[in-house]
Amino acid sequence: MLRTLAICLSLLLLAVPGASAGDCPLALEEPVLITSVGQNLDALIIKTIFDDMRVKADFLPMAEPSALADYQQVVISPGISYKGMVASGTSFEKEFDRTKAIIEATREYSRPIMLMYLGGFTQRDAKSQELVELVASNADVIIVYRDSGGPMDYFLKIAREEGVPLFLIDNLGNLCEELMLIFSPSK
Amino acid sequence: MVRLKNIQVSDTVKGFLQYRVIDSEKDVSRHRKMLLGLSFIVVGLILPKAIQPQIDLLLGDLHLSIIMSDTGLLLLATTKLVFFNTLRHSPVIIGTFLFGEGLASKFRLNRLVFFLSLVLIPLIFRVISSIYDIQFLFTRSSLITVFVVLVLYFLTFRIRTIAIKVIIIFLFLFGLDWLDVVPLLSRFGFGGGDVTSTIRVVSGFLNADYVMNYVGLTISLMLITNALILTRVVVDYYNKMSLVEKLRRIEMEALRSRSFQEVKHLVHDLKTPLVTIQGLNEVIGLKVDDPQIRSYTERISNSVEKVSSMITQILYEGTLRPIYVQEIMDFLKIHLSLEELHSRVRIDPPPDAIVYANKHLLARALINIINNGLQATDGPDGYVHVRVSEEDGDIVFNISDNGRGISRDVLDRIWELGYSNGKSTGLGLNFVKKVVNDHHGDIHIISQVQVGTTVRISLPGGEVDNEENSCS
Predict the structure, then answer these.
(1) What is the extent of the structural domain holding B425?
(2) CA distances from B355 to A154, B149, B334, B462 (A)
């Protein structure tokens, strides 16, 4: 109990201006669609965590916009794994177009987008940054692993200028507990 | 080599021929190194394509490790990744070093290896990165590249065996690549690649950071330490071998010297039968009236006197006589011709002057210096120039070459008995110094690296004594 309290407190302290105490916990509408744009494996970790959290979620690495009709929310993990793209038989251009199409579909179906950034792919990569910027500018919530090595300045700027709630995760080993504090699954 | 078997040749000729053989072996070795280096670089360019499917399979292992929350699978995938990364790095680095060494040896610029590697290694890695979309340790920070190349250069530049060089470079790089997957070091720029980043995130997710830090750092430390120890052992071995070789040469020289002493005893013994021949020849001359036979006995008598004088010169080599410089130079030319050294030696006409000298010893000392000069000059433009002049009553021999010169630290030790640059016994210049001292002269060396060397020998001049000089 004390541990949960401590984590919640630290999250409150870490939350940047975009995410106030009132934003936590967030409502999580089920079922959730999890997809990776750039074919990184972070999305699979998120799916595993959602399973641990007993959140009804599907991981569709190559999800198409039409799939959104069956889900209430979308979690997108942007970031390019070149080897992942080769294994999935896709390319950056295709992934970029798919991302744009998914974002348009979320508007059409009025589904909130959660951007989750853990950093399990090539860092300081211009193409990854393009995907991040495309998703972040349309995201309703941004969740970033603090030590991901990602573009933290950019996330802070988006949170400040666009007012998007931004949450920082301290420890990937406690991902489940930390996400439990952010999301409040609706039963 | 056939000639060496069929005819009797002096030690100097043998040495010179061996030097030529070694030189040609060096050419082969240098070309072999350059060719091998280029082959390694080509392999380095091709290998990423061959390894790529194996690395793609690693994603499957990582996928499984996430689903099954299996740290063992993560470690397996990590080990495979590090091994494949090293396999991709090493041919480029090994190839560049070998190519650089071959090239440096050709132009006698040892430092070229380091600077060439510093330019070539990142360049090749950038080419590979742009072809295959691979991020290497070397393409991330120029500081890391300089550090790695510097360490590997100093680790391996004294190692001549290519296989050992390959093993040491592989061990060191394998150790270094392990640092890429240590989560603790990610904040210092390690592990920014595609799969390594995934491994780091999966490690954090599986709470395996402690294991990954421990395993990664331990293996890295072990491999790098092993590479350093192996380098030390190999370098020590080379040093010992070089020392043993040097001792063996000195022993050979000592043996030759002992044989020479024995020959001198034998020569001395020749005097007894010569006295008998001379005595009996004179008796025959007195007892026979036939002018033809008398003429024969006179010729026998002259020949015996010449042989006797030659024996005296051999036995009393320390004896100095006034002798024309021209005579010494003629004697020198005959020996240079015999030892096949004359083609790259220019000798100016000497002055009409006299020097107190032992012709045999002085000529041998001059040949030693000429031989050293020739060894220092490679290529068709290399030459040795011998000039003799008269300065303030002294006779000055100047032997100059346009070779690689002698550095300051070597000059300080050059007269030491047994000191050698690795190609000689280290006895030659000591002998020269002794001969000059015995002649009451001075010797000086003036040298400039990559310009040449001049040896200046100054001996007291003298006046001719016809009686003393008649037998030489």
Answers:
(1) 320-467
(2) 91, 58, 19, 5
CB contact under 8 A, B209 and A173: yes
Per-residue pLDDT reduced to its tens digit, B334-353: 777 666 566 788 888 888 88
Is residue B4, in this structure, part of any structural domain at all?
no
Domain check: are B40 and B189 in the same one? yes
To probe the interface with B, which of A123, A125, A129 has the most B CB atoms within 10 Å? Answer: A123
Q: For chain B, what is the domain count?
A: 2
Q: List the CATH number of the domain containing B369.
A: 3.30.565.10
B69 close contact with A: CB closer than 8 A:
yes
Q: Which amino acid is at B94?
A: I
Domain boundary (B222, B251, B280) is at B251
ipTM of the complex: 0.81
Contact between B197 and A172 using a beta-carbon 8 Å cutoff: no
Predicted structure pTM score: 0.62
Cβ distance B207 to A173 less than 8 Å, yes or no, reads yes
Same structural domain for residues B47 and B164? yes
DSSP B33-94: HHHHHHHHHHHHHHHHHHHHHHHHHHHHHHHHHHHHT-HHHHHHHHHHHHHHHHHHHHHHHH
The verdict on B79 and B210 lying in the same domain is yes
CA-CA distances (angstroms) from residue B66 to A32, A36, B371?
Answer: 19, 15, 73
CATH topology of domain A2-185: Rossmann fold (3.40.50)
The reply to whether B274 falls in a domain is: no
Looking at the structure, tell me whether residues B352 and B216 fall in a common domain: no
Q: Residue B62: inside a domain, yes or no?
A: yes
CA distance to partner chain A, nearest, from residue B142 (Å): 16
Q: Residue B278 has what DSSP assignment?
A: H
d(CA B374, CA B383) in angstroms, rounded, equals: 7
Report the Cα B67 to chain-centroid distance in Å. 61
B56 in contact with chain A, both atoms CB, cutoff 8 A: yes
Report pLDDT digits (tens) over A66-119.
Answer: 999 999 999 999 999 888 888 889 999 999 999 999 999 999 989 999 999 998
Whether residues A40 and B205 touch (CB distance < 8 A) is answered with no
Q: Which residues of A touch B66 (CB under 8 A)?
A: 41, 44-45, 48
